[in-house]
UniProtKB/TrEMBL annotation:
Physiological role: Catalyzes the insertion of molybdate into adenylated molybdopterin with the concomitant release of AMP.
InterPro entries on file: MoaB/Mog-like_dom_sf (IPR036425), MoaB/Mog_dom (IPR001453), MoCF_biosynth_CS (IPR008284), MoeA-like (IPR038987), MoeA_C_domain_IV_sf (IPR036688), MoeA_linker/N (IPR005110), MoeA_linker/N_sf (IPR036135)
UniProt-recorded name of the protein: Molybdopterin molybdenumtransferase
Organism: Pseudodesulfovibrio methanolicus
Pathway given in the UniProt record: Cofactor biosynthesis; molybdopterin biosynthesis
Top-level taxonomy: Bacteria, Pseudomonadati, Thermodesulfobacteriota, Desulfovibrionia, Desulfovibrionales
Length: 408
């Protein structure tokens, strides 16, 4: 009999083996959602040169210093600069240059007068009040300076960060690719989801769709992994050994079912026969106590119990931190929520309770979906994550509790 390992110890053992794949060079737009392998910094100032933030007229502020409502200053307008204009000539004293939003402020000018603040008279303008240096001028690097870190190493690249990288002339970045996962549901009673009802009947027995494959595919993809393949394997040890012995295995393999103690529960033994080294055989969480983990080379194998609720719990408790590490992301740290209802955990294990999550103002709240009034599958359908309760713990409304979720 194997002594169950704690959740914390299980995660520590797994993270010692989990290593993100080597970095790939991609364009910023192709790196969205991936973790940066190195700091990504702006390669140029934005704007590259001082520019106008309004449609108006570039001037030397000292030329309009004496302007008054009853004694305006009159300036000749020489030319027009647009956002695409380059290398403008220096402004001449006593003159103005028409400049549109985003256009360069010519050398010598230190302010822009908004067009609504002047009176236009053909090729001249009248100015009725002085203006401060820097008025309606965005300095070079005023939006972002060259060398500024846009996304630090180990952080996920957001769409907005990718846009800033592109604007600052970053053409290529190093990112960690998404880890690949392969999912296999074990059981002769199961059919691959999506089959026609007639195809689910074998030897007169109607098999039911492997709902745990649908659940796990969804949570893996929500966590940023790629599910490259899903499938159903009947209760045939040789077929499972063959599937686990292939030469081109992904970073993660998950089997569901076959982790109990009956003669048809051979997932762990098949893993050992396939060359996997055990990491742990049982874990001290409920549901999911019969979960095991093993490794071979760069592949981590997770054997999960068959019920979807158990697979849901095991993924969040153990596999999610591994996926983050394989993606090159740092430990997310615990997230807490405020319970909305009272609940008691039975003694004996760490309990993972399905709960719905909601942001109320600045507070994350958790409502348990457990107990006699909540049917298990209905609760699973409404769950956004799981609350972690210790053996024998009692929570009352307003108590803070750790929650595990892919929502954040």
């Amino acid at each position: 009999m194997h002594t169950p390992i704690s959740r914390a110890d299980a995660v520590r053992k797994l993270l010692r083996r989990a290593r993100p794949a080597g970095e790939l060079a991609v364009a910023p737009m192709d790196g969205v959602g991936l973790a940066a392998g190195l700091d990504v910094s702006a390669l140029c100032d934005v704007p590259e040169h001082a520019c106008s933030v309004r449609d108006g007229y570039a001037v030397q502020s000292r030329d309009v210093a004496p302007a008054k409502a009853m004694a305006p200053v009159r300036l000749a307008v020489h030319g027009c600069l647009r956002a695409e204009s380059a290398d403008p000539d220096s402004i001449e004293p006593g003159t103005a240059v028409r400049v549109l939003t985003g256009g360069p402020v010519p050398p010598g000018a230190d302010a822009v007068l908004a067009e609504e603040d002047v009176r236009e008279e053909g090729d001249h303008i009248q100015v009725f009040e002085p203006v401060r240096p820097g008025w309606f001028v965005r300095a070079a690097g005023g939006e972002i300076a060259a060398g500024t870190v846009v996304t630090p190493a180990g952080h996920e690249i957001t769409p907005q960060a990718a846009a800033v990288m592109t604007r600052t002339r970053v053409d290529s970045i190093l990112v960690h690719p998404r880890p690949r996962a392969r999912l296999m549901a074990l059981g002769s009673e199961l059919a691959k989801p999506g089959l026609d009802p007639a195809e689910r009947i074998v030897s007169g027995t109607a098999r039911f769709p492997a709902d745990n494959l649908v659940l796990l595919k969804g949570v893996f993809e929500a966590a940023g992994a790629i599910v490259e393949r899903t499938g159903v394997i009947p209760d045939d040890r040789e077929r499972l050994v063959a599937a686990l012995s292939g030469p081109d295995l992904p970073e993660i393999i998950v089997t569901t079912g076959g982790t109990g103690n009956s003669e048809r529960d051979f997932a762990f033994e098949a893993a050992i026969e396939s060359g996997f080294e055990p990491i742990f055989k049982r874990i001290d969480i409920r549901p999911g106590r019969n979960m095991f983990a093993a490794a071979r080379g760069n592949t981590l194998l997770f054997g999960l119990p068959g019920p979807p609720a158990a697979g849901h719990a095991c993924f969040h408790a153990v596999i999610l931190p591994v996926v983050r590490t394989l993606r090159g992301l740092p430990d997310a740290g615990p997230r807490t929520a405020r319970f909305t209802q009272a609940i008691n955990a039975r003694p004996g294990s760490e309990w993972l309770v399905q709960c719905s999550l909601k942001i109320e103002g600045s507070t994350l709240t958790a409502t348990p979906l457990a107990g006699k009034t909540v049917p298990p599958m209905h609760g699973l359908a409404q769950a956004h994550g799981l609350a972690v309760l210790q053996s024998g713990q009692t929570l009352t409304p307003g108590d803070e509790v750790e929650v595990l979720t892919t929502l954040f």
